[in-house]
Amino acid sequence: MGEGIGDYTKNIVDLRRHMWGAGVEVELRRLIWQIAVVGKYISAKIHEANRKQAGFKNIYGEEQLSLDRGADDILKNQLQFSGFVRQYASEEQDDIIKIGSGSEKYIVTADPLDGSSLVDTNLAIGTIIGIHKESVFDTGKKTMAAALYITYGPLITMVYSAGCGAHEFVLNREGEYVLAQENIRLKEKGSIFSPGGLRRDWVPQHLKFIENLEKEGYKLRYSGGFVPDINQVLIKKGGLFTYPALQKSPNGKLRLLFELQPMAFIMEQAGGRATDGRKDIMTIKVEKLDQCSPIYIGSSTEVQMAEQFLS
Ligand code: AHG
Ligand code: MN
Ligand code: MN
Predict the structure, then answer these.
(1) What are residue 21's phi and psi, to 5 degrees?
(2) Out of 57, 75, 139, 174, which residue is the most buried by the measure of CB atoms under 10 Å away?
(3) CA distance 283 to 264
(4) Residue 68: exposed, middle, or buried by beta-carbon count in 10 A (0-12, 13-18, 19+)?
(5) What span, in angstroms and rounded, lies between the C-alpha atoms of 290 and 296?
(6) What spacing in Å lies between the alpha carbon of 224 and ligand 1's midpoint?
């Protein structure tokens, strides 16, 4: 066998071994491992999906595919018996759900399936998880202990951070998450940009910022799936993703608790940054579950450039 993940003559580091070596506290590493396992079940569900719509709407009024609900059920049911989770907050639920006995250490937030409208196009989709110590109605800085996301693409990959770097794992054919990249570090400056929303709905400062990136030769890379779009910036070690304020929705589209803070946590751990244009995403206080925020996330040069244009 050649180089890399399939080469068992090399020293394989799987997820559990990595977290143990990285000194992640025992309950947290068991929880992260269990969530990574849930990713395998969600992936199986995606494979068998019949893509029939379930016939009801979620609280955001978007049409909800049966797949979103399926992924949410799998997560909730597994976390219920994890022994480490006292509350579950999901984009697919109207309220925070109490699970476990109530004395467990963590609260888990989930976007069980991000980008589910892309399933029929065979583009990558994902799962985004935040792990909180305290109430989620605070700043991410204060309450988040860890975050992870899983990308369901040609490969299933998982990136986690428990506060000591961001690390990428690939699910191999044996069903193990094996280390692909340890301590991912973004460069100061990248060369790609991923801009959400319609150009005609952008505010003038944002339009000027994007025009500047175009002028500087940044390459457009937008799939419409938050997870693969962010993953691209991280794995290419630089660049910028933005979903900005729009004329009619000044808070943009993406959700602070379920989508933005987990990704900001990971990006910062990789040496990148995330702001809403003025404030660091991790310092914004979550007041309600479906709170949205504009976001500029990626390498420091591009995020700083965004701040200059927006100030
Ligand atoms: P979700 O499927 O969880 O509702 O999220 C969809 C999101 C995200 O994946 C992506 O960045 C954004 O919607 C794309 O929005 P546009 O279609 O407006 O580009
Ligand atoms: Mn989403
Ligand atoms: Mn979703």
Answers:
(1) -65, -35
(2) 75
(3) 10
(4) buried
(5) 19
(6) 6
Cα separation of 194 and 209, whole Å?
A: 13
Tell me the CATH architecture of domain 192-310: 3-Layer(aba) Sandwich (3.40)
Distance between Cα 263 and ligand 1 center (Å):
14
Against a cut of 0.90, is the pTM above it? yes
| Chain Cα centroid distance, residue 208 | 27
For residue 196 and ligand 1, the question of a CB distance below 6 A is answered with yes
Domain with CATH 3.40.190.80 in the chain: 192-310
Is 225 close to ligand 1, i.e. is its CB under 6 Å away? yes
The residue whose CA has the least distance to atom 8 of ligand 1 is 226
Q: Is 224 in the pocket of ligand 1 (CB under 6 A)?
A: yes
- Provide CATH 3.30.540.10 ranges for the chain: 10-181
Q: State if residue 68 touches ligand 1 by the CB under 6 angstroms criterion.
A: no
For 129-147, write each residue's pLDDT tens digit.
999 999 999 999 999 999 9
pLDDT in the model for residue 145: 98
Q: Which residue has the least CA distance to atom 18 on ligand 1?
A: 197
191 C-alpha to ligand 3 centroid (Å): 28
CB within 8 A of 247, min separation 6: which ones? Answer: 201, 202, 203
**Which residues have a beta carbon within 5 Å of ligand 2, which is an ion?**
111, 114
Domain 10-181 has CATH 3.40.50.1950: no
